Amino acid sequence: MNPPPIALLVMTDGRDYTLHRTIESARVQLRGNVVERWIHDDSGDGRHAAELATRYRDFEVIAAPTRSGFGGAIRRAWQHLHAVTGAAYVFHLEDDFVFPRPIELAALATILDLRPHVAQVALRRQPWNAEERAAGGIVEQHPGDFEDHCSPVHDLEWLEHRRFFTTNPSLFRRELLSREWPDGANSEGRFSIELFSEDPANRSAYFGARDSGEWCEHIGLERVGTGY
Question: What are the tens digits of pLDDT across the range 96-126?
């Protein structure tokens, strides 16, 4: 069986110092049939978008004419990909994450194939805010909200939940691009509410077992965008 075709979408807002680390880590650690590579640049600076196109020649750059903020940028990027991508899956990646170990993207796609009600398979990051650090991690903060699942046939484990849809590194089906991402403040939370209220079966998932640890590292020390 041929590996599933995947589009890599990198969201950036002018943080070149983290973008370079993110892209280089993705080149090394993301393993799979990546057939398209996209950068959405929300800097609103045409010269910056042109520099990105020169620097990363294997990527297509989606240049925003004006800054549209966190929610607006995702909305625009998803609309663009929905119109043009031929990939079956999209790996969504913000410009401030790196990968400490290899990620087999076909494994994430297999989970989506096995579980049609799962909207995304995300990669767990390290605890970030005070509450997560105190608990020992994202999952450890609310352990009862995450259900353990496995497929011995495929040698896969994952955790399903209904707490949130995350814009942290994740794989989802191309069809999700047809959903309209909310504009304005708290767009991630509002997208989650709409997704989970639409169908009580809908879930998000984290790749790996409960004790598998983190699969990506958040390296952005501060937010430089707007409209979170």
Answer: 999 999 999 999 999 999 999 999 999 999 9
3-state helix, strand, coil in the chain (%, to 5): 35, 25, 40
Range of the domain at 64: 6-218
Give the pLDDT confidence score for residue 228 in this predicted structure: 41
Angstrom distances, CA of residue 123 to CA of 50, 61, 62, 184, 198: 30, 24, 25, 25, 24
Half-sphere exposure of 184 (CA within 13 A, CB side): 2
Total domains in the chain come to: 1
Question: For residue range 5-14, what is the model confidence (pLDDT) as tens digits?
Answer: 999 999 999 8
Torsion of Cα atoms, 150 then 111 then 219 then 213, to 10°: 10
